[in-house]
Structure formats: C-alpha cells, structure tokens
Amino acid sequence: MARIGLVAHDDKKDDLCVWAEHHKLKLSQHELWGTGTTGSRVMAATGMVVTLLKSGPLGGDQQLGAMIAEGKLDVLIFFIDPLSAQPHDVDVKALTRLATLYDVPCANNKSTADAVLAYL
C-alpha cells in the first residue's frame, strides 16, 4: 500500500477530482493524504477517505513536504496550474524540490498521474 499525497491548484481541483473518480478503484487500495481544500473536494467527489492536512497556502504544502522528508509519503500527485500566478509559489517550489530530492514520484498533470498510478 502506497501513501499518496493529493494537491491541486484552484483551477486544477476539478481536474484532479475527475481523475480521482476515474481511478477510484485503484486509489482506494492506498492511503491518501491531501491538502485541506483539495482533499475535501476529492472526498466529496469520490467518497474515498483522504486524511486532511492544512490548506496549501496555510501550510499544507509544507506538511506534505515534511512527510516526504520523513519518508512518510511515497507518491505526490500535484496538479499544477502553469498559467496562474500562485501567492504561495515558494511553498509549491519547495514541495516539488523535496519530491525531486527524495526521489518521490511527482505527477503534475493527468498523463503523468496515470503513468505513476499504473506503476503502483
């Protein structure tokens, strides 16, 4: 069982919910963690249990990063909106940097998320 982090920028939350609903059977076999708003939206859309952290801008991104650094997260699914400025961009960059540093698979879009999930 993998420990999967779920997070999405505001304009990508709907996309992540649709993706999670499509992969509900496979995702439900794993332990899911999500930033506050994203995790709540995924739970509402799919009925799956997602352990909620703080909202991304309020520290949720940093909580996921800490989980990666502590070896408590195996996969990060982070649907990033490349066309919108993010007020907490520093936190976003830190999270993706930690995923890279600790060699944690990090999917930033649907196609990559499909490939990572197929691997599990």
Structure description:
The chain is α/β, with parallel strands linked by helices and 120 residues long. Helices cover 48% and strands 16% of the residues. Strands 3-2-1-4-5 form a five-stranded parallel sheet, with helices on both faces. Helix 3 links the parallel strand 2 and strand 3. The protein is globular and about 35 Å long.
Brief summary of the model shown:
Substrate binds at residues 9, 13, 35-38, 55-56, 88. This protein is an alpha/beta fold and 120 residues long. The chain has helices spanning 13-22, 24-27, 36-46, 60-69, 89-101, 110-119, and strands spanning 3-8, 31-34, 51-52, 75-79, 106-107.
Descriptive terms for the model:
Rossmann fold, single chain, globular, 16% strand, 120 residues, alpha/beta, five-stranded parallel beta sheet
Strand order of the largest sheet: 3-2-1-4-5
CATH topological fold name: Rossmann fold
Query: Strand fraction band?
Result: 15-25%
Poorly predicted spans? none
- Continuous helix count: 6
State the name of the first-level CATH class. Answer: Alpha Beta
Task: Summarize the biggest pleated sheet.
Answer: 5 strands, parallel
Calculate the terminal CA-CA distance, rounded to whole Å: 8 Å
Q: Helical residue percent?
A: 40-55%
Tell me the count of domains.
1
At the fourth level of CATH, the homologous superfamily is Methylglyoxal synthase-like domain
Shape annotation: globular
Q: Do you know the CATH architecture?
A: 3-Layer(aba) Sandwich
Mean pLDDT across the residues is 94
Cα radius of gyration in angstroms: 13 Å
What is the chain-wise order of helices and strands? Answer: EHHEHEHEHEH
Total number of beta strands: 5
Q: Structural class of the helices, strands and pairings? A: alpha/beta
InterPro entries: Methylgl_synth, Methylglyoxal_synth_AS, MGS-like_dom, MGS-like_dom_sf
GO molecular function, one term: methylglyoxal synthase activity
Enzyme class: lyase
GO cellular component, one term: cytosol
